[in-house]
Amino acid sequence: MRHKQVAYQLLNSEKGIEKRKQRCHDVEPVFGNIKQNHGFRRFMLRGKDKVAIEWGLLAIAQNIRKKAA
Questions:
Q1: Is residue 31 one of the residues assigned to a domain?
Q2: pTM assigned to the model
Q3: Composition of the chain by helix, strand, coil, percent to 5
Q4: By Cβ atoms counted within 10 A, which residue in 4, 39, 47, 58 is the most buried?
Q5: Which of 8, 54, 49, 20 lies closest to 34 in space, CA to CA?
Q6: DSSP-derived 3-state class of residue 27
Q7: How far apart are the C-alpha atoms of 12 and 35, rounded to whole Å?
C-alpha cells in the first residue's frame, strides 16, 4: 500500500502533472497512429528480443513516414 501512496503523490506533484500533460503530446498519438492507421494490433514474433526488434522496425517505419509527409 505504501508504494501506491508514493506513486499517487508523485503523479499529483507539480512535476508529475507537467509530465502527464506532456505525455499526450509526445507518446499517445504515435501509438494511436500505428494502431489505427496502420492496423498494428499484435506482434507476429514471440520473445522479448524478437518483440524488441519488431517494435524497432515499426518505430523506424513510423519515423520514415513522418519525414516523408
A1: no
A2: 0.54
A3: 80, 0, 20
A4: 58
A5: 54
A6: coil
A7: 29
